[in-house]
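User: Modeling request: complex.
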Amino acid sequence: MGKFSRRDFLKGSAALGALVGVGTGVGSSFKKTKKVSAAGNTKQVFSACPRNCYDTCSIVTTVGDGTIKFITGNKNCTYTNGRLCVKGYTYPNYVYSPDRVKYPMKQEGRGTGKWTRITWDEAFEMIANKIFEIKKEYGSTLPIALNKYSGTFNTLSYGIEGTLSSIGYTTRAQGTPCWPAGIDSQTFDFGTIVNSDPEAMIHSKYILVWGANPAWNSVHSMNILQKAKENGAKVVVIDPILTDTAANADEYIEIKTSTDGALALGMAKYILDHNLHDMDWMRKNSVGYQEYLNYLNNNITLEWASEKTGIPVEVIERLAREYAAAKPACIWIGYGMQRHTNGGAAVRSIDALAAMSGNVGVLGGGANYAQLDSWLVNYSAMAMSPPEGSGGGADRMININNFPAQVLDLNSGDPNKIPIKMLWVAGRNPIAQDPETSVSYKAFDSIDFVVTADLWFNETVAQSDLVLPISSIFETWGVHASYWHYWLHINEPAIDPLYETKCDVEIAMGLSKKMNEMEPGSCTYPTDRTMEEWAAMEISQDFLNSKGMTSYKDLLKTGTAKVEGYDAAWADGVFRTPSGKYEFLSEKCASFGHHALPVYVEAKEVPTDRPIRLLTPHWKYGLHSQFQNLSWMQSVHNEPFVEIHPELAQKKGIADGDMVKVHNHIGFVELRAKHTLTVPKDAVVIYEAWYKDQKFNVNYLVEATPADMGSCATGQAGLAFHDQFVNIDKL
Amino acid sequence: MEHSFTLVLFTVLSQLAIGGFITLFFLDALKGKLSPKTSQTAAVGVVVIGIVAVLASLFHLGHPFHAAKALLNFGHSWLSREVIFFAIFIVIAIIYLFVSKTEGGRKKIVAGLGTLFGILTVYSTAMIYTIPSMPAWNNGTTLLAFMLTACVLGPLFVQTISGFTKDTFIDCSRYTTTIIGALIVVNLLIISVAHGGSDEAVATGLAICTSPLFWIKAVLYVLAFLISGRSICNSNLKNTNIATILFVLMLVAEFLGRIVFYATGVHL
Amino acid sequence: MANQKYGFIISMERCIGCNACTISCKSYYNLNPSINRRFVREVEETLVGEAKRCHISTACNHCEEPGCAKACPTGAYTKLDNGIVKHNQDRCIGCKMCATACPYGVPQFDPVKKKMDKCSLCVELLEVGEETICMASCPMEAIQVVDLNETETIGLVDRVNGFVNPDITKSTTLFKLPDATHTVRRDL
Amino acid sequence: MGMKNLQRYYILYLFLQKFYAGELNRLDFETWENLIQSLQQDCMDEENETIWQGLRRFVESTSEQQEQLEFAFNSLFVGPGKLLAPPYESAYLNENRVLMQQETLSVRKFYEQAGLELICKNHEPDDHIAFELEFVCYLLGQYLQTKEKEMIQMYHTFLKTHLFRWAGVHCEAIREHSDHPICLGIADLLDGLIQNGQTEETMKEGNQNG
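Assistant: Request completed. Predicted assembly structure:
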């Protein structure tokens, strides 16, 4: 186009001279074109949902004029049957919201809102300078911390871990908030987590859904449960809350929160007393069964179990009888029931119940919790080695579940402690989602430099010095696996990245390039691959071989393929425990300070001054701080509420729809009360969610109480999210 | 209900215009009791008010410029019928302007036709709202209330006009008192019918009773009833000033009442 | 075409009140945020047997005697031979009478187009043998669009307590009521 | 319409374009003052009071305020937070406040009909106000240079069917969410141009009818 200079037609204009001197000329954003784009030119590509969700759906995206027109599920995946969930259907709204973070920006004073747009080059330079400065002062990169978790499970998003590894030894937020106690339990019992293919639940005769709410959190499995039910299986839900899952089941049993272990042991005792257990299986496949059976005989009675759980003896008896008689019977162990100070012990008791009744290794059976076996990926974006001569010796781990407190401790000025000077936040909104929100703010204040990579402006971005705009899955490549079903999806870009957004691997490559320009050899992250090459590198040869594929291109034909061999987990009887057998008695468990047997551990005591339990399960229209902020979702729901049983409400003088204050010793929230008969009379339920432009954040009420297990498999104990106690008053 | 203020304006003003015209039919065309100036002025008033009503109703539409399409469903829609009847009414009222100076049959025919279409309009308006999805409205009270609005405002309007034209006063105090009394009775009826109806009707009844506007209207009714009743036997009160006061009181009362009507309707 | 009579069958046994139908429909038809063509409502917890969460998902009920068609002054609504109550937006002048007249409050006012909007039963998809968006999107397969002339309706009901009486306009939507769930609740 | 008017509009649109492209955010105060002074000189013949109000606001802005311009600019038009006055046509015209839908694509089509395409097509929405203004300047510049009738026709049509359809609401949003004199001045300038456009439109119609 050429720049416009001072033109004849504007002779005598004083301003033009000044304007021409500023920036680029007229027409420089455009180029000449001859074509006029034809409407209706559409193509379909495979995408995949990277959210932290059981269902990890393969998506078919219809693209026209370079823009997303509509999305549906991928029919090639039998797990989803070509359907998405309510959250998935909002993606077009998500990608094209004008409120996305669009450009790298820096803030003059955290929380001031004084943002300046900068180029990626400037952003990389800022980060690189800070890294070099820290390295110079401390001799290592340990004062640099990464706090990343489950905002996206695209395996290429692990490029952010790779970024930090490629600059040296750093500090990492280690662990996972939501499921580690159960992972440890299954690690002690089976050797690791492996669940039967959820699609095999269709073969089950009896399904115990224990502390899970698939109607809201795994809707495609809910459909499988429904089909199993229509096939004649009996579906029983054990939960403190009468969830939508319970509502669609044959039977619902309200259990007193945090006493699940007692119910499992009571059922096992009944089965043992009535000789319904599978002695052959135990002899052949397990160790420590005699000690376990002795424990049942000597320590457990049904009356005791009934007293603990609040479930009548005859119901426990019937449940045990039905469970033992149905062949096969499966248990779905949810994540809700292990978010307690005795949650890991409870999962061990349930595992033991499944094992002693002969339901492990059986098609349509199992004690199904989660799995990572289908993650046949190379983590090539993540696995990076530090530059030669890096100081610090090894990465330093701090507990993700108590991150702010640990940061404050390191930054307390103690000369023996290496402080945290720089924080990189990715795939998380810790200020809104971590417990003890007020402590989070203090921890951020104690850190010199905070970089946050996100798609949305949230509380954490507001407390950052630098924000990096991240592309959505529709704008980049990806490889996605589930921690529940066995499908592996490929994700190809549907559209060009909007604005200046980049995915984590592109950021890693950009930073690496900059750092090596400034100080050669200071970063090991490779910079010479395309995103497609990175995606191709993620898919393991094992996976390709098992599917008879020669390259990732074969996977692009269907978008998804299933890892086979898991119809019945542990069917081969080869367990990954030290003994190679199922371990009723686990020395490893004992070595982590727990009882070697799956014994009952008392629930956390209810404080007298805060007698009402607060349950904060996942919300159906969102996933942590995602989705509920979109205008489409707001059109069906946009106000937080607390569910309260009418009897409790009456005692507190709270009418349906009243504004109430829920409070405890660390904070409070104010919201509307909703009467419902579906919650216990001694608890209230608030669903955790992020509502845009609203103050509500339930984490003001949640204390960072650790669960009993988690440190074996994930490095850190989980969080006892459901051992929280509050008071409630009408406002 | 949303956007109801335009509907309040339309229904009350159209009923006022129709009531006024029917009054002309009786007092002017049939009985010849009005001076040409009064009947002319009143007829102009009727036309102007009618047109204002139509303009107000257009604001209720998403696409006011396509209002003509509203004529298309005469076969089924009471709204179409209302539009057509009222349009005809206004045309006749305009014709009446030209024939009002003449005497005899032609004037009577025009006035009679106008009266007929006026009544048809009020009937159609009422039928629009007499629908099962609005239980509290779905009975004869809607029609009664709309008709009475026309009946009470029309003569008072003409009397008020006659005040301005310095015409001789025509006493309607018995009639007016009776109609206001009837309005009070109908309002009691509306509330009691609602309370005896479905959940939604009960909710409507409750909303009416708790609406401050309703109670203001009630006070205005009682006041107007007392003044009008007093004027039956007190000839000092038989004058156009009193009629004007009554007209203003009842016009305000009907506006408030109609606001309450729309605001309290509870949908199924 | 003439012998078909399309209508919805909603399995409340399957519906979990997730609103996937509402959002996918909104996405496909690019509806204004303030309006929806489907409505998911919570119904009485004690609808069947002991208390539990119950939902109902409905759209336009494509009534036999549509109140909207009777109320509409422009004749924008037509009951087609195939059972669909069609709203012709070109005719609509946005008077909102249909919204008042519909016992289910189905037609909604689109504040941008300034016209009414409602479910068309995805007629253009049905005509080419495809499923409606809601039917194809429901992760629980709770929504079916069927030819009511050809479908066994034993065990289905036309009314749900808390949802409006179908007698007024002869709604054609049928429901499979949820089974009662046996519940064991704690005594406190 | 007089050439002089068009020349003045060209300068005003160019000024707005530079502003929305973020190119005036980091000027030193002296350059800024000079720019505004010369802009005022160029606008001597302008009769629209709103435009003058905007120009006066520019003059009134202090050097401190001018330094804060970028922050105010970003919170209104760039982010990273929720955009208080989104600079995209579709943010106003699309029913869902969703970008890159038919509203954006129709702007794209308009550019294509003029033989132009954005270099950053599919990366930045085509209906960003800086692009629309640049396009307006291009059409106007072409006309002033070549006097091709087609260019001025496209110029008028584009303003009528695109920029002027939403810029008014956009200006309201600026006024609602900002108290920065320069941003408010920009809203005045834009509003003034819309007003002039409407007056000319009526005059044109009057001429045609008469």
